[in-house]
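Quick review question:
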């Protein structure tokens, strides 16, 4: 009988891990306290890149580069089994000043990424485009759709998803987890994987008092424009615009240390609106159609924890991806599956190990 893995949390980390484990022959169940894919993974922009990759250290860039190399095949496999199109599109990203041009040059050279010339459509639409750095290789996905596609892929691979099932605690026996509790019952499996995003440390409680995962709020506005109004992602000084194929433009985002408060604020709306019209003056006066927030699973230096618990031999974690959980999803799912399946790891797991 195949090993049974019970996953807690149905965001992109949980769904991607579940699909990977089920595709490799394991029996997988997933518990989600609400509907799957409604938290940080839904709220994000879907940019498949670090915003300024040269600002990050090797652990972040290694995981991201591994993920980006996997993405085309991962999406192709997803498209074979899911009905929903995740809208994976290599739109490119324009980075406007200020940024460290020398560090950017070094980073591009190290990866043999040449500088393509700026497409005419970008130059025509973004007034400041000529001052920027054009990264043609950057792609995006549409968050609600990739989550739906992953859920469909999980179901087609036999993952059993239990929604409206909030885990209230873990039971242990010696050096093992013996079950997880919801209000209704105790759920048991061979191995347990926590992918509860910003809530991971709260859920583990005293089982892992030093887990450095905390909620970091990000607010986003959505505009409806004509398709083609903005042809690419634009980033400037912490803010970005991300165009979807149907003309929707996401504008974000804030970085706020406010605990588990998901409120949206007028101050953030004004800031993001100002940013949007600075970058794309044609949007001046256009009212956003939606304003939301999400809680990122924040970690020091944006380094996730993808590891087995140091004291509980059948407990694993895949969380803390902070600003890049969508970008890092395929490589993180592969790595946690490597550890659970006792395969030789695809990348060095040590930077992502569980803190003592
Ligand atoms: C505004 C914003 C913009 C972003 N932009 C990008 C971007 O452009 N590119 C990128 O790569 N990343 C981006 N991110 C970051 C990315 O979205 C996150 O890193 C990623 O979604 C984290 O995924 P997750 O599955 O760990 O967490 P989540 O999506 O939050 O999923 C955790 C799940 O666990 C469930 N859960 C929690 N507690 C329990 C419990 N006790 N029992 C059962 N279930 C539980 C929750 O309900 C939730 O569904 C952005 C995030 C935000 C907020």
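Suggested answer, residue by residue:
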């Amino acid at each position: 009988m195949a090993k049974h893995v019970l996953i807690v949390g149905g965001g992109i980390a949980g769904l991607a891990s579940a699909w990977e484990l089920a595709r490799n022959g394991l029996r997988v169940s997933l518990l989600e306290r609400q509907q799957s894919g409604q938290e940080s993974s839904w709220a994000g922009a879907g940019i498949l890149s670090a915003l300024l990759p040269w600002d990050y250290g090797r652990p972040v860039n290694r995981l991201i580069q591994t993920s980006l190399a996997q993405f085309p095949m991962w999406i192709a496999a997803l498209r074979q089994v899911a009905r929903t199109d995740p809208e994976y599109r290599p739109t490119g990203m324009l980075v406007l000043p200020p940024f460290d041009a020398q560090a950017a040059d070094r980073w591009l050279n190290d990866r043999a990424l040449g500088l393509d010339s700026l497409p005419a459509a970008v130059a025509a639409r973004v007034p400041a485009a000529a001052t920027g750095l054009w990264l043609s290789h950057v792609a995006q996905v549409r968050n609600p759709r990739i989550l739906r596609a992953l859920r469909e892929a999980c179901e087609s691979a036999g993952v059993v998803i239990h929604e409206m099932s909030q885990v209230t605690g873990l039971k242990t026996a010696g050096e093992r987890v013996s079950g997880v509790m919801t209000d209704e019952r105790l759920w048991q499996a061979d191995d347990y994987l926590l992918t509860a995003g910003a809530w991971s440390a709260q859920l583990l409680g005293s089982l892992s008092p030093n887990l450095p995962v905390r909620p970091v709020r990000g607010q986003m506005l959505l505009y409806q424009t004509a398709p083609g109004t903005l042809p690419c992602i634009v980033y400037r000084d912490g803010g970005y615009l991300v165009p979807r194929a149907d003309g929707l433009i996401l504008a974000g985002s804030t970085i706020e240390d406010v605990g588990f408060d998901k409120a949206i604020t007028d101050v953030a709306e004004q800031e993001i609106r100002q940013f949007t019209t600075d970058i794309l003056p044609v949007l001046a006066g256009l009212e956003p159609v939606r304003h939301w927030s999400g809680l990122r699973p924040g970690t020091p230096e944006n380094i996730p924890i993808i590891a087995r618990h140091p004291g509980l031999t059948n407990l694993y974690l895949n969380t803390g991806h902070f600003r890049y959980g969508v970008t890092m999803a395929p490589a993180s799912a592969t790595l946690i599956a490597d550890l659970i399946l006792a395969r030789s790891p695809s990348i060095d797991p040590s930077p992502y190990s569980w803190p003592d």
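Why it works: The chain has a mean pLDDT of 96. The two ends are 34 Å apart (CA to CA).
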